[in-house]
Structure formats: structure tokens, C-alpha cells
């Protein structure tokens, strides 16, 4: 599973931040799970790495959502490790992976044309029961990474929400216990911020602070709070609602936090 997510270019060392994350979405109206290296966002498109390589394997026994079952998961991981190792030996950079509709796909970018069909045929000799497919194309702008694998705004915030929840869990937090949950937001003008405040006060939010900070845009800061639990669904519902309302008032949402409750 992307044991060595990138290989150093023989011409120039590539320092690639490893910031792997997963999120759920829909592809062709089917449930989908995408895993990708968010760290590539700051570098891509990478010069000379203009060849997108794709490998897809068809699951033998997908679950009702089209994902891997617990029983088949180790085999799919082994297939991913094998094809990834073969590609990385050729200097390929792992971009992401997709599970949906009974298939598992991996995406890489390379600086040279790779015969992925021949490589896959060699790898899959050890997995003769599986059907697979391969493809390569020139993707100079890394459109498959940015326009397909990369999360949209709401999915990206879901990733950030999960990271906060994971940190809370490591500290022994009980997500069912209600406590004040703080949110930070920024607006273009004071009028935008005031309009937003009028709306969210009706939803039970308390205003903690309002400041004007030294920045070129969105300089009108707002810190608000509301008592709630921090279960997965509660947090996502509240955050998505705030993102929507913030956008309607020319602002940006900038995350949340809360005290640990045990």
C-alpha cells in the first residue's frame, strides 16, 4: 500500500511531503473511497512527470458498497504493494488510489513512458484469479490528480474533521459528551461578518470574539461557539452548515476545536 510513495529523480532529488488522507465520495453515482497524497498539491504538476499511469483490478467479492471485504482486503493490499513496487523501481510517483463499484485502481505519475501492460502482466502472474486493466496517458497538468482524486471543499473539510476527531480520541475523549465547540471564520468586510452573525445567532451560536487582523483579504475574523457532542455526524453536519453560510456571506471557514471531555 504505497510503502515507498515516491522515488527520487536521477536528475534532481524530489522532496515530496507525505500527507496521505482518505475520504468518501461518489463516482458515476456509486459509493467511492479515495486515498491520495495531499502533499503533492504544493508541487504538482511536477516538471517532466507528465505521464499518468493507471492500474485497475476487479474485486472477486466486493461488499454491498462495491468496496473490499475484510476477507479479500489482504490480497488486494498485496496486489497494490506488488504493482506499486514495480512502478516505483521505474521512478514513478504515487498519486492516489480509488475503490468503487467493485474495482480498485491506483494512479501514478512518471517522467518516462512505462510499459504498464507488460509490468502488470508480470505482477499478476502471482494473482491469476484476478482480472485487471491498465492505461497510460499524457497528463501534463495532472488533471487526474487535481480534478478527479483531489477532494472538493466539503470532502477536504471532512478529512480535517477526522484528523481533529482522531487526535481527541487519542487523548481519551468521549465524543458523546456535549461541550462548547469553537469555530473560526474570516470575512471580506465587516458587513459580511455582521450578516453572518445575524444568521448563526438564530442557530444557537455564541459570539466569542470579533477582530480585524492584518491581512490582504478576509481580514474580519470571527470566533463562535456552540454546545454539542463531537460525534462524526454531528461535527460534519455543523461544519458543512457553517461552510455554506460562510460562503453565502463572502467568507471562509477556518476550522474548529474543543476541550477534551471524559
TrEMBL record:
It holds the Pfam family RraB. Transmembrane segments: none annotated. InterPro entries: DUF695, RraB-like_sf, RraB_dom. Residues 160-258 form the Regulator of ribonuclease activity B domain. Residues 18-150 form the DUF695 domain. This is DUF695 domain-containing protein. It comes from Aureibaculum flavum.
